[in-house]
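User: What would this chain look like folded?
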Amino acid sequence: MCAAWIREGELKMNVVYPDYYRDFRCIAGECPDTCCGGWKISIDDRTWKTYRRQKGDWGRKLRRSMDRENRSFLLEGGFCPFLDEEKLCGIQKRMGEKNLCRTCRDYPRHMEVYDGLKEVSLSLSCPEAARLILKREKPPALIKKEIPGEERTGKLLELLLEARGEMFGLLDDRSLPYGLGCGMALAIAHDMQSRLDRESLGEARRLLRYAVSEKARQEAEKKTAVFYGRPEERRQYMAAWMEVLGGLETISASWPERRVHCLSFLQDRSAYEKTHEKFLEYREKNRYVFANLMIYFLYVYFLGAVYDGNVYGKAKFAAVSCLAVQAMSEAVLAEKGELSEDDLIEAAYIYSREMEHSDNNLEGVEEILMKSGLFSMEKIFVCLFS
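Assistant: Here's the prediction, encoded as C-alpha cells.
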C-alpha cells in the first residue's frame, strides 16, 4: 500500500506494522493494571515547557511533581502523581490528550529503525496490547506502507528479514508441535551465526533455504527426539533460570512476588510433576497463543542483529522469554488447578514490564545468555521439548 503523498521518483522507505496494531484502544479505568506506575515517566522538551508555563494551583502542582534533573515525573508510592482513584490521568482530564508527554501519548506503541526500514509494534507490557498480541487464532500479518525517506536496506538486513520470515512460518505451522517449531527457529539462528561470524552471507542464505526444506524438518524430528521425556531436567533448568532473573533491576512492583511464586513452584518437585503434563496439554491445545508470544519477541528484537551481528542471542532471548512466561503460567495452573487466557496474559505483561522496560535488564540478560552454560542450546531444547 503506497502512501498518497509520495511523488513519482521520490525516495521512499518502508514502514511495517502487525495487522492488530491499529486495533489498539486504551481501556483506561477498565485496565487490570496501569501504565502510570512502576517506571520512570520521561517528559519531552516541548511538554516540559508547556507544563512549566501553567498558572495557578494547577501549574504549581505540575511543577512540584516534575524532576528537573531527570526530566521526569516524581512518582508517589511508585505511581504518577496525576493518576486518580479511577485509574485515569488527571493531566488528560484537565489539558487533553494532546498535552500529554510523548511517553504517555505513544505508549504502548513502539518504533525501531533499521536503515531504510521502520518497524512499529505494540508493547507486550500493556495488558490490552498483550491481549491483542496473544489471543489471535490466526497468524498476525505484517502490513507494509511506503513513506518519504531514504531506502537503504543492506544485504544483512535483507537476510535477517528473510530468516525471520521463515521462523514465523515455522511457528505458524500448526502441523508442527510447538516445541519443534520453536526449536527449528532457534536452530536457524544458531547455524546462521557461525556463517555470519565468517562474514559469509551467501553461506547463511544457502543454509536458510535448506533449513526450511522437508528434508531438514525430518532431520530435526530425528535429532530432537533425545530431548523429549526429560521433565526433571527441565524443572531444574527452569528453576535455575528464575534464580538468575532474580538479579534483574526491579521495574514492576508485581515482578518480585511473581518470580518467587514461580521459583517456589519449580523447586517443589511433587507440585511440578502433578502439573506439568496438564500444562503441556494446555500448551498444545492453545498452541497459537504461545506461537504468537515467540513471534512477538522475534519481531521486536531479531532485526537488532543488524547492528551487533548477534542473531543467535536475539533468538535465544525470544525462546528463553517464552519459557519464562510459560513457567510463570504453569505456577498459576498448579495453584488454581486451571489456567485462563487472562492468567497467561498477566504473566506475559508482568514479565515484559520487568524485561523490556530496562536497558540494564535487556543488556544484562543478553550477555548472560551468550556467556553462561546454563543457557546452552541443549538445555533450552530440553525445556522446549520435555
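Confidence is low (pLDDT under 50) at residues 1-10. If you want, I can go into more detail on any region.
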